[in-house]
Protein 1
Amino acid sequence: MNVKTQYYDDSVKGFITWSIIWGTVAVLVGILISLQLSWPQLNVAPYLTYGRLRPIHTNAGIFGWGIGSFIGLFFYITQRLTKTPLWSPGLARVTLWLFNIGIASAAVTLAMGINRTKEYAELEWPLAVVVAIIWVLFSVNVFMTILKRKEEQMYISLWYIMAALVGVTVLYVVNNLGVPLHLFKSYPIFAGTNDANVQWWYGHNAVAMVLTAPPLALFYYFLPKVTGNPIYSHRMGIIAFWSLIFMYLWTGAHHLLWTPIPDWIQTLAMAFSIMLIAPSWGAVMNGYLTMNGQWEQMKSNYLVKFLICGITFYGLQTLQGPMQAIRTFSAFIHYTDWVPGHVHMGTLGWVSMVIFAAMYYAVTKIFETEIYSVKLANIHFWLILIGQLIYSITMWIAGVQQGSMLLATNPDGTLHYSFMETMIAIFPYYKIRAISGFIYLGGLVAFIFNIYKTFQKGAASQAAKA
Amino acid sequence: MLEKNPVVFIILAFVVIMVGTTITMIAPFKWINGAGDRIAEVKPYTPLQQEGRDIYMREGCNNCHSQTVRTLASDVERYGYGGSYSKSGEFVYDRPHLWGSRRTGPDLAHIGLKYPDPKGAWHKKHMENPQSVVPASNMPSYAFLNTPLNTTYSERKMKLLDFPYTQADLDDLKGKTEMDAIIAYLRKLGTDIPVKKAEAATQAPAALKNPFTDLKAVEKDAESLYMQNCASCHGDKREGNLGPALKGSAKSEADLFKTVFQGIEANGMPAFGGTLDEQKIWKLVTLIKLGAK
């Protein structure tokens, strides 16, 4: 009587594969632009200049790697949590095609200098429309699966997924409102300070709805799966969920402290940023307490390492972030390399670590096999951890050094250092950062090889069974 | 019920998201860019400047250069170039805003005040080969902007953005290069609001007396200051380039100090009073007067 539900996992595999490819592109371009900052001769005009490559790095990372893997893994966990096959496998296949066409066109058009300049919303209007369509197709598929579910209760992961579906749609549409000049150029409908306010409402909440809610959905699902422990408190998860999605939307202007944005918006952003520590740490503590009595798994279970390290970086990230959102501290480090240091702890540390664990687990389950090499997974873990730590720590030091030099004044009130002197002081850190990129890339290569071998092994054993 | 009804859940999540959105993002439209923000002197971009702005965007200059002088003393001192901090009214014609988020290069909100040269000679040299002007710079070369400007959409842009323009403005585009356009844009930045020149002049210290008499004592500092700030226009060996030769200047020390401090706008000589302190300027004066001829 115990009939197993037939899940549709082809698109899960497809999205995992392609998001890894786009993620690798993001890392490679990241390394190239980090080298360009030390050796400007490496800029190949006009297509491969820093100004055109940097948006390719961020878009490949956020949309290609981040959103790509979330779509794949959400197809995976939504089916399992609802005990229902995916609503429309055909739609999922179309979504994957559109996704790859969209990301590839994004890379090409950005290299050609076709962009809107608004950070993380650079893609010109035809591609922005494609991104919106991809997101809607994916959202409908997931939402319909949830509607038709056989499991009555909706687990906390589904809450985070649904919030992201709504949130990303609202943010993306509003920040992309514009008037087309022709096929490759448009002007936003907002101007100046308004445009800045809309942009950072979008920019910071992209962090909430793409780089926080989705990895939390993965974390809440995979930590219990991987450890065999139920989540410590479902209730705490729910309280943290509602307060998180309520408070995040007030905080965008902390990217605009001391600018012409009205002071009261800045102050609200600052206050809500600090309040966000509570729900963020609600999730962190939920993770830690789930490990009660099971901490030895940090040694014995490679997936726990990724997940617990990931949530730890989330905890650090959500303490550092609110600190940066305070006016006085922002005056010191804003516009310096401190901020890329912060961002990369979140993306390389928290988000990617959780995605890596989720991918390892999902791939072995889909193929009903074991991972090709646990040892290689451990090497992967240590290389990306070390790479990311070197990256972030050198950038924090560089940021503090440059920040203090930029603010230094002589007794008569004039500036002590020229801008160039502050740059010369931090050039050595740029070289160390480039090295950290190569270390991270080494970890990524270990991961790709391991996943590839596991795919191969899984396909072989499935063929044998058939 | 929430745990069982996804439709109710998604509506509620939307409402929760919209609270902060409404208060901090939608409501401010009522105030921002309104009459209170407007500054009469700030003018929209000309067709050439707007083309330059679009090239600035195409090349992603905003990835390294911000465009907002914050209300911090050090920001005003460093990037104000004699002007003040950035005000909302300066940006009302900016679609999109180009405030940026990282200063790998300096802020450009008021860059038009720094290099007053009407010919934009410094900018051209700098864009073509940044290291020829700032030896340690890590900026890429933009020599490829020396190509004819595509003006197909220039008029349509003006109409779409609702900026006033004349036929003379459009005729002015003829024969221009992309380089001309981006320099025209950079030269506009920050120059709409008049800077009180008279006040800036009186800021020069009253007692113009060089505290240094011995070149040896200051030579090392002076040489490094010279290489950083002056060499790009006056040549590595003070032999002259964009600017005149500085070997054995006939000017008095006090005059040299004033020239460095206040600049000579018509000739394109920038004022360094905002970026170099008095001691440093005197060291440079000492080098120019007493250095090897």
Note: The radius of gyration of chain B is 24 Å.
Protein 2
Amino acid sequence: MEILGYITLTIFVGAMVLMLFRKLNFPVQTVLVVVSLICLVLGAVFRFFSEGWVGVILLPNEMIGGIILHPITALLAGLFLAGALTASGGFDVLKVLINKLQKTPIGLAGTLVILIQLPVIASLPCGRIIAAALLPLLFAFGFEGGMGLLTRSQLIVLIGAFARNAFGSCGPSPIGGVGQIGEGFLGAFFPTASEGMLRAPQAFSLMLGTALTALFLKLITMKLYPEGVSLRDLPEGSVIEKKKAEAKGSFKGYLSLVIFVAALLISIFQPFGKMPVQTILVAGGILMLFMCRVSIRDLMSGIILLPVTAMASGFMAAGALASTGGFEALGNILKGFSSVPFLGVAGMLAIFVQIQTILPLACSRILTAALVPVLYFFGPAKFDLITWPQLAIVMAAYMINATTSCGPSPLGGGGMMAEGTMRADTGYIKGAFTFSSMAIMAPLAAIYMKFLTLSSFSASGVQLGRDVWLIIEFTLVIFVANAIIIKLSSKVLSEDVDKNWLSQLPAFVIPGAMGGAILAFCLYEMAFLRIIQGAIGGIIASLLIALMVPKRLTPAETGE
Amino acid sequence: MDCGTTEWLTFLFLMAFYLSVEIYQVLRRKEGEIISFAGPDIPLGDLLGTRANVRMKDGEVVDAEMSGCTLCLGRFEVGDRVYVCKNRDKYVVSLPLFMKGRRKRSDFCKSSCRREQASIQGL
């Protein structure tokens, strides 16, 4: 039966790689469902010969047992609420409020900062919902949108950073976020893990990672691809009549926004006693439908349910792998990596944490649902390579890296991971997004989990003040070091495309080494050898990531 | 009503909601073919969502919205067959769980790059 695990694992990984290189031209979730069924059939054949019909009959049960309902139903409930908010005009009201913020003492700069961080504040289960809703407002800030408040480069930074925050905000969402998958597994040891153990580390690292993304876009991306994004700037000498953004909110919109915020706060803080999150969200959504007179047709035709099917297909694949021994096979392979002397467990974990940035699929939920069980097996439940607190630290780093992987996926629009054929917009942001995920978010999430969350969640008393200072110090070091690397790299860039692409490799490798070392420090503290191993793992992961940043966004000119 | 009953009722409601949305979209969707993309005229706007011009089977060309998720998960390109659902005032491209294979008529990135180049040259 062991060989079956390796076969099904090969089928799964092979399908992922074929999709990434566009050899399988079907939607991701369709491929996963088919892969699950193939694994099921293969498993049935093997089991028939080894255990008879009894083994075959039990197989579908074991596969379905891999589907964890709580994250799926929480996500459905969150999408139901968000769909009702969209249909009732709640997002139009949000635009009005953002416009009004500009007139407060925080001004335009403060408003833009809040706007960029709004997806993680709103905590929707899918960041693209709010991103799509606020797109017209973002457009309005530029010259073509009418307000003329931002230049071309400022608009690129605004939208890029906003997209970064939006694509990662599904992780820490308390209403169906991807992090809840990990919290479910951690609940085997931490009784209160489901109350949001992974939320704070993800949110903290996402907010800071968003800032670094903005810096990368400004100082490096725009120099790497000067004509990579088309937008007209205000022609020199022109004067435009600045229009005020025409955002209007209705009473229904204000009401629905109030209901949304109330539902969110009640589900997080549970002031009326313990209630299932899904029930609160469903109640909020139904209240919105009735009080705001939302048409069922508007709700049903516009709602996005893709994340649900993506997650379900990921769980199906996970169930198929689990029931056929695929996870054990993967665990054995990774355990084999950990016995390599210069890698060890620390180095292997430093690579595993970055795996969804190295192999990004279209929706992070898919691979997260499929791979989190493997991470769980590293802990005391199976391979016993790490302890429960160490598992929580790795889970936090893994989760934020995973949830921020969907933005730069080369699958967007049918791109390919090769020079010049990647979809233009995805290619433009790939460097910035993968850098911030690898260099900032993963290590910061690990730091936060180590020095703050575990302090709050464990029974033993820890000096909270000391830990908060440690977090601040580490955060400053990580942020400043990466900012210096970005600044130095921007000075090296020239007009030579090949030289630029090579120049950015050290800019990835050094922070990658740092990130791997910090992860190892969080796991093993002052064990010097482990820190070196973590750094080596980080270098390997960052090289794999850096090699995928496209040299150019348009095909090289050929002599025709 | 105890917590267990509430959970079950919520679960059943959500399953019913999910199935009814899927059925609604299946019954109301119409098939068409993407003839071009007309993304938002802001940099990186396609990451957040785009618009596609879709020629329906009856020959009508509609302007349909496509979320970033749909574009990415569906890996749509010019020439692909898609399904659109009509909202109150707009069309939305949907992505069902199972889709037929699609003909690939052109390299989407080349189309996208041509769009970018044309936009720059239009200045």
Note: Confidence is low (pLDDT under 50) at residues 103-123 of chain B.
